[in-house]
């Protein structure tokens, strides 16, 4: 049996989605604007997109670039962030570099990268890579810095070399923080994926969206927005499951409600 | 827990073995100066010299902030002293090693490992086969009274339980010297007494050298061959007192022993005197 509290928690996201669609439906009926289709019209357009082979190939190509960009970024950023967190000289070397890149919107770099690498997959994947790297580096860095010194001392007394301490102690100890960074990175990967395809129109989910916009097919535009949004929700939910499993040992035992009434 | 009934013959046994004891740890004129954030020098330890014999149980007793932990870290090789030197078996201590096993005041357990995982960590690190390491670790966990908690994570344990896991984790890799920083400070009186007895049993069995930091005068007298009394600001050795009480020690007998009582009274009086001297200056 599910308790009523669990039931409410499970139902809440579904209710939120239904609520949002209802507000949308009412608003678009009230506004009667051509460029603002009703929620029902937008949803009706979804099967057409997903049923079309060309569109499907485009969306899958987007997801592939996103996966590669995200994966490579995580593989590079975690070791770099951990090293920066444990070594002052590594941090001193990379910090200024990262501070230069951090505030620049990664999509703004695209035109330059396109000049070097063309408008193909490499450019778009590289932009996703850049977008994902920074939050992952930052959170890995903070996580590694916060590792309790006595834990490292305990490892040293057991005979772990500095390199092994980084892998066997700093990495697991910082994992909750690292995964927070990865979660932010995943959302950013989706955002940069779409923006990169907006700038370099050639293929991808972003390409479908902006082409439809140019042609005034607003049903398709909003259907694509729903599809991308759903992708975001699914990816985040999958990631959250993996995360919760990996760091079960660190989750707080007691939920602290915001109000005590 | 193994409570062996005291036989009178054991009381006749000499306090220490007859063979000449050799020094295992030599601390020679060690000072430790910290830079505080206000950019002032803070002398935590001043001119500490101390020799610890192999197999001895030595307690360090002193007020909070007198540098007990710092001294332990220096022997552990975690901190290098500002001046002076520390040696183990004649070799200068430059870094930590499995010959010296620390039990920290803050436990420092690995939160991502279960109780069993924590205790097995050291032996596994030293290449002990998994099955063997597990069997040894389970025995240690039982010894510290945590049977049934093997699969618990540190966050699921009370403070006293964490402390016991920390002790088991260090014992598991058989260091020659145990460096214990107020290991029983957070425990209730009952568990504390039990663990003191267990520690003495282990120590009497394999005669590890123990350097034991504590706030408690009777704990120091009960456990030790030697009590090092420290004073504060700057941290100095005030007195080193040999505790000539027979072993194995039984708490119920010792509590009635006038010699034991006298040690406690004497040490407490010395601390009171230094308090008064401190207030007068
Ligand atoms: N990393 C540090 N930086 C600056 N000062 C320090 C540092 N570590 C310790 N000290 C200072 O050195 C002194 C001794 O500290 P220590 O932790 O060794 O004391 P202690 O005797 O173990 O105290 P307690 O019984 O409370 O654990 C204290 O005055 C403390 O403020
Ligand atoms: Mg201390």
What's the arrangement of secondary structure elements?
The complex is a heterodimer of chains A (261) and B (281).
Chain A: H1 4-31, H2 39-51, H3 53-86, H4 88-101, H5 110-117, H6 121-145, H7 149-157, H8 162-199, H9 205-214, H10 218-246
Chain B: H1 8-12, E1 23-35, E2 41-53, E3 57-61, H2 68-76, E4 83-88, E5 91-92, E6 100-103, H3 115-125, H4 130-143, H5 159-171, E7 177-181, H6 189-206, E8 209-214, H7 217-223, E9 226-231, E10 236-242, H8 251-254, H9 258-280
Parallel strand pairs in B: 3-8, 3-9, 6-7, 7-8
Antiparallel strand pairs in B: 1-2, 1-4, 4-5, 9-10
Bound molecules: adenosine-5'-triphosphate and magnesium ion.
What does this structure look like?
Chain B: Keywords: ATP-binding, Nucleotide-binding, Transport. Chain B: One of its GO terms (molecular function) is ATP binding. Chain B: Residues 28-257 form the ABC transporter domain. The complex is a heterodimer of chains A (261) and B (281). Chain A has a single domain (37-246), classed as MetI-like (MetI-like fold). Chain A has 10 helices and no strands. The longest helix of chain A has 38 residues, at 162-199. The mean pLDDT of chain A is 90. In chain A, α2 packs across α10 (218-246) and α7 crosses α8 (162-199). Chain A has 261 residues and is mainly alpha-helical. The two termini of chain A are 27 Å apart. Chain B has a 6-stranded mixed beta sheet, sandwiched between helices. A 4-stranded antiparallel beta sheet of chain B has the order 2-1-4-5, with helices on one face. With 281 residues, chain B is of the alpha/beta class. Chain B has 2 domains: 13-96 and 177-182 and 208-281, P-loop containing nucleotide triphosphate hydrolases (Rossmann fold); 100-174, no CATH class. Chain B is globular, with a radius of gyration of 19 Å. The longest helix of chain B is centred in the C-terminal third of the chain and has 23 residues, at 258-280. Chain A binds chain B through residues 148, 150-151, 153-154, 156-160, 169, 172-173, 175, 247-250, 253, and chain B through 73, 76-78, 95-98, 100-102, 104, 106, 108-113, 121-122, 125-126, 153-156, 169-170, 173, 175. Bound molecules: adenosine-5'-triphosphate and magnesium ion. Residues 68-69, 105, 181 of chain B line the site of magnesium ion.
